[in-house]
Amino acid sequence: FSTPVIYPVSEVLSGHLEKIVCNISSLKVKGSLPTHSNISLSRDGNILNSSHGKPSVEYYFVPNVEQDDGAEILCEAILLLGSQVLRKNVNQTLKVVASPYNVSILATHGIYKVDAKIMVTCNAKGKPNPEYSWELPSKVNVEFSNSNKTVTIKSAKEFHNGTYRCLIHNVYGKNSAQIDIVFEGKSRNWVIAPVITMLVLGLIIIGGVFYFCRKRPL
């Protein structure tokens, strides 16, 4: 009888309903059909599914790239022809691919002041490894590194305030993550001068009113 064949022979996509089929094109042995036949699919010694008297068996599952990629699938056919037991089997390594997942984005600052150094890093998993791009409030004085995973601003300005969005993709899909980075305002040294000016003006006005009241005739 024919040697079993496992389908698909290419990749399966993580997180999607997939099907493995083991098929035998012919169950005949020297022109005769067996009195009994059993075809099974198994993994690590555990039977996934089996069929009796049929030339094929199917198994539906949702693969996980971290758990199933590289797993060995065994298809075994056992035929009984009179008192003779015939066996054939075939192995196939499961190839699982995945669109980007487990996306994370981190920043050294959620709130920043003028001239602060800001670093925003994006990470994701996927098979094949994903590529990264960014949507930024401004690309002025922005550096990209670590295979485009990291954005660095050595001296942040007010126009760097806003949403930093990381875009991740590979041939099987895309994903994204974002973080808001808020400009707090100028440093205290820039604020002190206007405050002192306002206090001085206030004192002058109060002094003027007091002087006017004293000079006013009764």
Automatic annotation (TrEMBL):
At the top level, the lineage of the source is Eukaryota
List the Gene Ontology MF annotations in alphabetical order: integrin binding
Name the Gene3D superfamilies on file.
Answer: Immunoglobulins (2.60.40.10)
Record-linked SMART domains: IGc2
Instruction: Work out whether the entry's keyword set contains Membrane.
Output: yes
Which keywords label this protein?
Membrane, Transmembrane, Transmembrane helix
Segments traversing the membrane: 190-213
Q: Which residues form the Ig-like domain?
A: 100-182
Give the protein's recorded name.
Contactin-5-like
Cross-referenced InterPro entries = ICAM_VCAM, Ig-like_dom, Ig-like_dom_sf, Ig-like_fold, Ig_sub2
| GO BP field | cell adhesion
